[in-house]
Design brief:
A hairpin with a 7-residue loop joins strand 2 (84-88) and strand 3. Helix 3 crosses helix 4. The two termini are 32 Å apart. The radius of gyration is 18 Å and the shape is globular. The chain has helices at residues 2-31, 38-47, 57-64, 68-81, 102-123, 128-151; strands spanning 55-56, 84-88, 96-100. By secondary structure, the chain is mainly alpha-helical. The chain is 66% helix and 7% strand. The protein has a 3-stranded antiparallel sheet with strand order 1-3-2. The chain has a domain at 35-125: Arc Repressor Mutant, subunit A (Orthogonal Bundle).
């Protein structure tokens, strides 16, 4: 019986990942105002967590759990598209921060609204107990996944609970 639930959960998890990414990408592709991938949208969201000071490339990489070189490539692309801008630290000229431009803040607002609406739609017909169970299960799953990442020998950055 355990194998049955394991397979069902594995299939559901895989399908959910694919469907959420496809829905997000379709929404932004159809808008014609934005030329962004889902990973670029996620990067804008992380950068916008520090709207005043901005984020350094290493901080973005740690939060997204990707390499700093991947962030640099993405920031170069986002800068060319007009979604982000770089500026040097006022206290240490060697440090470079990335901030969203007005265009980037607008895209992030749309993306956040889209995700909020999707969550509301999913929860709409659930009772309080079902909502509590769903949120608890997802939080427990995320804690488990994060602990796996933190124990991985490939986790050279020593990533901690940023999810």
């Amino acid at each position: 019986m355990e194998d049955f639930y394991c397979k069902k959960f594995n299939d559901a998890l895989s399908d959910s990942y694919i469907l959420i990414n496809r829905i997000e990408q379709n929404m932004f592709n159809s808008s014609r105002r934005f030329n962004l991938s889902v990973s670029e949208l996620n990067m804008l969201e992380v950068i916008n967590k520090s709207p005043v000071t901005g984020k350094m490339v290493g901080d973005i990489a740690a939060e997204l759990m990707i390499t700093p070189s991947s962030v640099t490539i993405a920031v170069n692309r986002l800068e060319k598209k007009g979604y982000v801008a770089r500026h040097k630290s006022k206290t240490d000229g060697r440090q470079v921060y990335v901030n969203l431009t007005e265009k980037g803040r607008h895209a992030d607002r749309i993306h956040k609204r889209f995700r909020k609406n999707m969550a509301q739609d999913i929860l709409r017909d659930m009772n309080e107990n079902e909502k509590c169970t769903l949120v608890g299960c997802v939080e427990r799953m995320n804690s488990f996944l994060l602990s796996k990442i933190n124990r991985s020998p490939f986790n050279r950055a020593g990533l901690k609970n940023s999810a």
